Design the sequence.
């Protein structure tokens, strides 16, 4: 015979066991479904399965995922240098250094805040609040992603003029959508991490890294091949006249670097689609029984304020670290350009035989050295 329960206010409860089942106790929750009562305490049965992992299990999953991503990243960078040379790597690195702080600004604090608040609500049995945090986070992520995308699109021309490297612009424009897609990905990564399911995060991260490797390298090599084929037929590279094969190869490098960036953009999109399809197919593991036994959700405005308040300190810290790298890259290139303009002899003598003549003739020595850096 099913036992009926009533709501009970409890000042403090401890973890206890009932008939061999592990029970987690919470204050002020509704006694329904899989909740039980003992000695004045309200508890919720610990579910088996459901994708939940222990702390060590979840940490192991993320660690393996990070190691895999780092290995794939190493496999990407080395052959990419062979394909687009140091000159192309200069354009690639310049675009990435602008992308990093904008990516951090748009995504760094929000997934952590969602994860933290989701985990807190789960521990307290407030399953309606979990859904509420997920719902209010979506427009916040979308607005942050659109803002980051627009800032990169409209800020990139100003930045490349400031450092004197206008050929880095194509790579920046190709990379801009990755900020938007990464924000969409963050909607689900933080949510599932808070629910103690690290597999979606690890799988999406590895997917992004694989796309970056396969698509980025393939497109970069294809762009170089198309450019050199056009030069052999018409003596031009994407419409620009090339007096020599070496010059033609140099003209192709900004577009090859942008081609390598397509792997990042496509990877972030596929990572989001994997998480979205997983959420549609399997949901978040919260049952109707749990929702029925949960207290009413807090107001949307309050949940949104808590989300932003929790995300702000983490986001500011992440942005500060990446902005420092951007400032370093900016000063490095501008100072090198000043040296080349006013007293190039000492610098060129230091790197004699290492810098191609075409790089010196095109006045792109700072970009070349930054690609080596």
Sequence:
């Amino acid at each position: 015979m099913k036992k009926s329960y009533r709501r009970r206010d409890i000042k403090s409860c401890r973890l206890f066991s009932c008939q061999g089942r592990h029970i987690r106790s919470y204050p002020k929750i509704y006694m329904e479904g899989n909740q039980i009562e003992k000695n004045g305490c309200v508890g919720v049965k610990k579910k088996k399965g459901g994708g939940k992992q222990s702390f060590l299990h979840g940490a192991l999953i993320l660690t393996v995922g990070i190691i895999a991503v780092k290995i794939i990243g190493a496999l990407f960078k080395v052959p990419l240098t062979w394909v687009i040379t140091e000159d192309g790597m200069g354009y690639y690195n310049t675009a990435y250094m602008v992308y990093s702080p904008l990516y951090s600004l748009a995504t760094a604090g929000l997934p952590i805040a969602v994860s933290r608040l989701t985990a807190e609500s789960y521990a307290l049995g407030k399953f309606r609040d979990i859904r509420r945090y997920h719902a209010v986070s979506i427009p916040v992520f979308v607005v942050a992603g659109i803002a980051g995308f627009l800032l990169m699109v409209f800020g990139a021309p100003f930045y490349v003029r400031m450092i004197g490297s206008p050929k880095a612009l194509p790579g920046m424009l190709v990379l801009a959508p990755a900020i938007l897609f990464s924000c969409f990905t963050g909607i689900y990564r933080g949510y599932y991490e808070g629910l103690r399911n690290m597999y979606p995060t690890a799988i999406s991260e590895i997917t992004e890294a694989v796309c970056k490797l396969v698509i980025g390298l393939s497109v970069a090599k294809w762009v170089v091949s198309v450019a050199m084929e056009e030069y052999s037929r018409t003596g031009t590279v994407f419409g620009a006249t090339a007096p020599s094969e070496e010059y033609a190869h140099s003209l192709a490098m900004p577009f090859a670097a942008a081609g390598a960036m397509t792997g990042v953009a496509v990877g972030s999109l596929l990572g989001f689609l994997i998480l979205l399809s997983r959420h549609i197919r399997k949901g978040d593991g919260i049952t109707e029984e749990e929702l029925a036994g949960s207290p009413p959700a807090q107001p949307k405005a309050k949940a949104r304020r808590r989300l932003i308040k929790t995300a702000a300190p983490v986001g500011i810290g992440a942005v500060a670290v990446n902005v420092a790298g951007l400032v370093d890259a900016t000063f490095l290139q501008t100072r090198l350009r000043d040296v080349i303009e006013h007293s190039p002899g000492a610098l060129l003598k230091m790197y004699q035989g290492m810098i191609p003549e075409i790089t010196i003739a095109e006045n792109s020595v700072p970009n070349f050295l930054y690609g080596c850096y």
The radius of gyration is 26 Å.
